[in-house]
Amino acid sequence: MGFWRSRAVWIWLLTLVVGVLVIARSTFTTDMSAFLPQSPSKQQQLLVDQITVGSVSRMLLMGLEGGTQEQREAASQALARQMRASDRFSIVANGAAEAFEKDRVFLFENRYLLSPAVKDGHFSVEGLRQSIAQSVDMLGSPAGMLLKELFPRDPTGELLALVDELNSADRPGGGGVWTSRDGQRAILMAQTRAAGSDTDAQEQALGTVRQAFADVQAQDASLQPVKLLLSGAPVFSVDARNTIRSEATRLSVAGFLAVLTLLLLVYRSPWTVGMSLVPVFTAVVMGIASVSLVFGVVHGITVGFGTTLIGEAVDYSIYYFVQSGRVGSSGAAGSAAWAKRFWPTIRLGVLTSVFGFAALVFAGFPGLAQLGLYSITGLCTAALVTRYVLPHLPARSVNLAPARRLGLWLTRRVTDLRRLRPLALLVALAAVGVLVWVSLHGTIWNRALSGLSPVSQEAQDLDESLRRDLGQPDLRYLVVVSAPDRETLLQRTEQVSGSLQQLVDKQSISGFETPTRYLPSAATQNARRATMPEPAELQARLQQALAPLPVRPETLQPFVQDLERARQQPMITPDSLKGTALALTLEAMLVQRENGWSALLPLRAPVDAQGKSQEIDGAAVQRVLDADAASAGAPATEVMFIDITTETRDLYARYFNEALMLSLAGLLAIVVLLGWSLKSGQRLLRVLTPILLAEVVVVAGLVLLGERLTLLHLIGLLLVVAVGSNYTLFFDRYDLEDEGESITMVSLLVANLAAVFGFGVLAFSQVPVLRAIGATVGPGAVIALLFATILTRKPAGRAAVSEGQA
After folding, report:
1. 447 — pLDDT class (breaks 50, 70, 90)
2. Under a CB-based contact definition with an 8 Å cutoff, are residues 304 and 419 in contact?
3. Ranges of H-type helices in 362-456
4. pLDDT at residue 36, as a whole number
5. What CA–CA distances, in Å, run from 377 to 19, 373, 587, 666, 718?
6. CA atoms of 346 and 359, how far apart (whole Å)
């Protein structure tokens, strides 16, 4: 009945219920944009938008390999038909003639409003004579048969000019369907209707594609040799979520079973083991709930990070159950004695962890802030439940006699290990030397944002290969035009396109894409319409223009009718392109944002004699853009050149620098806390030295193994401080060479093994961020305990710290 009369127990139960309810209503995500800045620059915001909601996030790339060319083409046609029958895709393109009928109709019916050749003088007598003469010459060429039917309606060659301009990019080849350059792969492209951030809908869309391909092969057994390849942002987001989900489950189970086995060996009491896990379970629940309440969404990496709490949160219950046995009392008396003698040390260890992770809560990156909040909440919860709830839970006696014998053996080994102090210092010195040498001849840190991505290199290579086969422009280089409204944006983009053409003429770039190629501004469309003469005037001009040419005026009567129709037809709008493959390209380049519109103009890099892409001279591009801005006089608009590779590197550098500064701030806070608590510079140095040297050795070991460190290794190093501080504080406050402290020594060993098991399993994760933490904390915990044993020694004659002294 004492259990139910405890106020602490009621508070714990109520808090636990609330936490479970919060989790049940929480939103979980695996979107790696959580590890992008919360307050990005304009360039970074563009990158974030494209990752989360842009058309790039909805673009699906497909390749068909194996079998014969005829089999691949048949599979492409059948798969495209199946996908178009689904409502999950806004566009499905594979290069098939029937699929692009709408594109041809759109281009032909709007050729006079789209053609850049339509300007003053184009429909003058001389302009007509020149353009019609060129078409007549082409009729005598090998392509003449294709132009014969088109000539009466388009004698000025507007459609051919448009097609040539569209084909100026590196488009995929093929007859019936798109194929790769080597002819070994059929290529398809689709865009999902669902937003890129809707991972559930993206997963359903991928399931639709796979089922459609399975149906195609089931309907035609001859297509069995053909293999489907899938890539694109939807594939990455779904695979990342599934990987994180499966890894979090698998590693949580593995870590839990490892710690459970350890505790069963120590306690040999399932009941006591179950009680030991109460703080861990509560810590996980409250950690997730706190993140959900503060951030509104919980990242999968944060949930996976909860696995680490198994390794550290269980330490507190280990200290309680093992060390309360050391006191020799039972029930309330034993708990009170443990609280008086050991809780001050444990509490100080918890506070060092809190101070270390508190700095991360203020990070400008939501993912990093989530990890910090989760750690603080979880560790504090585990410690408080151990201190105030476990003593009230029903307890059963534990036979610690074997643990006492182990403890006696360990206390004797402490003296032996301390003889290795010169060797430990030598190892630490060698580790410093390794880090200095590597820093001078290379780099310790992986400064690519991809180091945080769970997407495999193989998947990235496939994506690059499919994009190359599709002739997609290299999205590394972009010119971004921004304006308050769409019409202003289109007009400004047309001006910028003219300036970029200068770079093409100078061969500084090999080309560029622009949305105004498919959607000219209203001003440009009106200007082109104004150049079109009325039918009677056009007839008179044709009479003069055709005089020296072998073409009769009545032959071009369809041209006169079409031009008059163009004078009267509505303006081209984005709705005009609906249902065409061109709409996909336009949507990728024309983006509506909260504060206006942006146009993305991808630049194609120049190539050398061997066909290899060269880097674009960003300074040269910027000079042209600056000159364009000076002459344009459009203060409401903005034009930027962005090198995505450089921007990503700068983004990561900002991320790294901020995390490093925050970690150093956390370390400084720990030093201040310990200095205030220990009230002795000598003791402070004695407590900190083993931890810092352990971190140096761990980092050097990872570097020697070929690991380039990411920011999550930095998080791991903070965890090593959190774990290691407990060890050094115990060695500082208690004489662990004394056989009377044998149980205390056992508690440290068991807690260390629990940390190694809990954290160590993460080293086998396929998710880089989890693997980095495991590879850092697992060995770091062992080395921290060894260094604490070897280097930390309580001065003779100092009594153990009591509650009142802490």
Report:
1. low
2. no
3. 366-388, 401-418, 421-441
4. 57
5. 12, 6, 44, 16, 15
6. 21
The Cα 194–Cα 297 span in angstroms is: 20
Residue 609: CB atoms within 10 Å? 5
Neighbours of 415 (CB within 10 A): 9
User: Which residues lie below 8 Å from residue 785, measured CB to CB, with a gap of 6+?
Assistant: 724, 727, 748, 749, 752
Write the CB contacts of 296 (distance below 8 Å, at least 6 apart in sequence): 27
CA 224-225-227 angle, to 5 degrees, is 95
pLDDT of 326: 44
Higher pLDDT, 330 or 356: 356
* 478 or 57, greater pLDDT: 478
- Compute the residue count for the chain: 806
**Rg of the chain taking only CA atoms, in angstroms:** 35
Closest CA to 448 of 645, 240, 618: 645
| Residue 386 near residue 318, CB atoms below 8 Å | no
Q: What pLDDT does residue 100 have?
A: 66
Largest CA distance in the chain: 119
The residues that bridge with 230 in the sheet, in sequence order, are 62
542: tokens are 């044709």
- Residue 755 vs residue 529, higher pLDDT: 529
The model's confidence at residue 329, banded by pLDDT at 50, 70 and 90, is very low
pTM for this prediction: 0.68
Q: From CA 322, how far away is CA 711, in angstroms rounded?
A: 36
pLDDT-derived band of residue 468, with 50, 70 and 90 as boundaries? confident
- Buried-exposed string 479-509: b where 16+ CB fall within 10 A, e elsewhere: bbbbbeebebbbbbbbbbbebbeebbeeebb
Q: How far is CA 485 from the centre of its chain?
A: 31
Grouping H, G, I as helix, E, B as strand and the rest as coil, residue 171 is coil
Identify which of 323, 334, 416, 415 has the alpha carbon closest to the alpha carbon of residue 800.
323
**Does position 620 have pLDDT exceeding 80, yes or no?**
yes
How far apart, in whole angstroms, are the C-alpha atoms of residue 45 and residue 327? 59
Closest CA to 790 of 312, 406, 316, 427: 427
Residue 420, Cβ neighbours under 10 Å: how many? 15
The H or E element that residue 478 is part of is strand 477-483
- The Cα–Cα gap between 566 and 560 comes to 10
Integer Cα distance of 333 and 340 in angstroms: 11
Report yes or no: 798 and 678 within 8 Å, Cβ to Cβ. Answer: no
pLDDT at 533: 93
CA atoms of 363 and 658, how far apart (whole Å): 7
What pLDDT, on the 0 to 100 scale, is given for residue 99?
56
Alpha-carbon span 245 to 303, nearest angstrom:
9
Phi, psi dihedrals of residue 521, rounded to the nearest 5° = -65, 160
Helix intervals (H) in 53-110: 69-84, 101-109
Tokens 């086969």 map to which residue? 469
Distances from the Cα of 645 to the Cα of 268, 648, 649, 800, angstroms: 56, 5, 6, 57
CA-wise closest residue to 789 among 417, 409, 257: 417
For residue 744, what are the CA distances in angstroms to 215, 316, 379, 560, 764? Answer: 66, 13, 21, 99, 31
Q: How far apart are alpha carbons 161 and 461 in whole angstroms?
A: 35
Question: Using an 8 Å Cβ cutoff, are 374 and 291 in contact?
Answer: yes
668-711 residue pLDDT tens: 888 888 889 888 888 889 889 999 999 999 999 999 988 888 77
Find out whether 659 and 45 touch, Cβ atoms under 8 Å.
Answer: no
The Cα 465–Cα 469 span in angstroms is 6
Q: Is the pLDDT of residue 803 over 50?
A: no
Higher-confidence residue of 413 and 804: namely 413
Which phi and psi angles does 622 have, rounded to 5°?
Answer: -65, -35
Q: State the average pLDDT over residues 219-229.
A: 91
- Which residue type occupies 30? T
Residue in the block written with tokens 């060269």 = 614
How many Å apart are CA 382 and CA 396, to the nearest integer?
A: 21
| Other beta carbons within 10 Å of 120 | 11
